[in-house]
Recover the amino acids of this structure.
């Protein structure tokens, strides 16, 4: 049995006039994440982690932000396409661990919904998805509430060819 590990990172600026979407869940807040797609930093970090585990081209190479077909795109679609590429490479997801760094809003009420959504996108049970919501202790741009940053580690396992 062969395992591979991948890491993903993303950061998006918080701006007015955008909905806040994290892990595929709409979160009520006065600002949202700026981006060419829906700005979902959680799904982008997860996508890069699974692509990285399979040593595939990263999210920016697969879905360039100057390509109009990804404008306003549901990041769940991008993750779905990345999952197809990972499957073609012969791997499936074993588990992921995600750190979400945000000063505001408080994410604890939404963690279960995000976990369920990410698990269904990755085709794993929720127990194989960990989401930790943390702050930057008011340090730097994330700490000033100007951005949300996400880190993800993903373990892939070789798909059995039975
Ligand atoms: Zn992103």
């Amino acid at each position: 049995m062969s395992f591979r590990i991948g890491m993903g990172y993303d950061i998006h600026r918080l701006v007015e006039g955008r909905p806040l979407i994290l892990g595929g869940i709409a979160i009520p807040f006065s600002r949202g994440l700026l981006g060419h797609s829906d700005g979902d930093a959680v799904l982008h970090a997860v996508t890069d982690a699974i692509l990285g585990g399979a040593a595939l081209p990263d999210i920016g190479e697969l879905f360039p932000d100057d390509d109009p077909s990804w404008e306003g795109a549901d990041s769940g679609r991008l993750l779905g396409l990345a999952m197809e590429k990972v499957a073609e490479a012969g791997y499936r997801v074993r588990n992921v661990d995600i750190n979400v760094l945000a000063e505001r809003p408080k994410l604890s009420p939404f963690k279960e919904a995000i976990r369920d959504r990410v698990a269904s996108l990755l085709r794993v049970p929720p127990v194989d998805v960990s989401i930790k919501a943390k702050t930057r202790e008011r340090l730097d741009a994330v700490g000033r509430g100007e951005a949300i940053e996400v880190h993800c580690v993903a373990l892939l396992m070789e798909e059995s060819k039975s």
